[in-house]
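Hi,

Apologies if this is the wrong queue. I'm a grad student, and the batch job for dolichol kinase from Cuculus canorus produced an output file that my downstream script rejects. I'm not sure whether the problem is my script or the file. Here is the sequence I used:
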Amino acid sequence: MLNKPVLAESLIVFLIVLCVHAVVWDRYSWCAVALTIQAFYVQFKWDRLLQQGGAVFQFRTAANSGLLPASMVIPLLGIVMKERCRSAGIVYFERFGIIVASTGMLVALFLSVIAVGITKPVPTNTCILTGIAGSVIIYTMKHSLTVSEVIEVLEVLLIFVYLSMVLLYLLPRCFTPGEALLVLGGISFVLNQLIKRSLNVVEGRGDPIDFFLLVAVVGVVLLGLFFTVLFIFMDSGTWISSLFFHMMTAVLGLGVIMPWLYRLIQRNPLFWLLQFLFQTQTRVYLLVYWTFLAASACGVVFYQNAKRSSESKKHQASTITRKYFHFIVVATYVPGLIYDRQLLYVAAVLCLAAFIFLEYVRYFRIKPFGQTLRHLLSLFLDERDSGPLILTHIYLLLGMSLPVWLFPRSCAPKGTLSGAGALVPYSGVLAVGVGDTIASVFGSTMGEIKWPGTKKTVEGTMTAIFAQIIAVALILIFDSSVNLNSSYAWILASVSLVSLLEAYTTQIDNLLLPLYLQIMFM
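Support response: The file is valid. Your script probably expects a header line. Output copied below for reference.
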């Protein structure tokens, strides 16, 4: 039988799905409910496969499969985007939301079919449920999508299949099935969008910062795949290999990524970036302030490692110490959200590219900094970093940035949505920066009553909810663009459900919680 935390996590996700579709009920609601029910049953099959070691790839073992919460994120994001853009009368992005929802459902269904297919003996009831859910989804897609949209959905599915086979083989124990669905599904969609836009470039159409995100994400992923294959045949830790790494990074960056970006934005990317970063005095002040915070974060890393050297080689950073970085990230994002969201958007993309590049340097032991990074970052490892990659800091950045990147600017004529939607860009700050941090700190220091089947405490969750409500009040005071229009009950319900999900989920909460809070706010 499923254990209590998994049941509680599934119940919370189901409540979120019902809350969304209580506001917006249409043909896609039937698909979402059917997908939720079948994902709940298939999740049990995945969990049993992981326990028995029968999964095709090696997944992260310290967590359950997480199939249900991950399966609903992309479909729900597409559905709420569709509704917001339909309300604004933007037909193009309404159709785009339908494509996102259909793609998310089909990818989740594909992962479910794999689990059912490799389970022995074949689970008859789960097969029937999966068949019913698949029939409902395909029938709805048939009557909702044009031929070109169906092809686009199938393209993303094909990319997802190939990426899954390659990355899950090369990176064992880095993901659960649910995390793989979210991360690889997102990368597949970004890659498909970049290919589509590159083949249909129209001068003056599209925001350069959107192209900057697409090219940066695809560029660093392709860079990693290239060096992973290359270093199968040569030792990556030598000076010759390191010199080749830096040389090829420059060649790929200047010879492939820069021309690609130039084709999309129709101007020199470096000149555009410099002009963008230093366009106003406010941006200069923000960049100086962020540089100071980055130096502070580095100072925390060096101080904790010096402390480890003086005390014990086995010293590991405590939970509270790791949350210092959450406070620093909150201090980074809040001024950007208030004063210049476009600058924050671009700065977050640059930060993501830098984080992933430094992880390549650490993973491949590239001289002169590879071994040093391995030593410095090993202090901050936890049970979620069981694979060859250290991803928690990248997930933290993604959790804070995704609500900013995914904010439907084209469907918000005044730069902000109405009601609770005005808080969408703050979803990462509230869910991870405030809620998760406060829950962890107060739960580990003062919590006594534990939620059944978990290490999380009731006191931590209640304090997190209270802290997020205070944070919303402060946002109302300092950000004049936020107007909640008496949506306070919905905000309280959203924050409470996501905080309960944090208490019960074993997935990467830095990635999952902001997305669910964004869905509820939208």
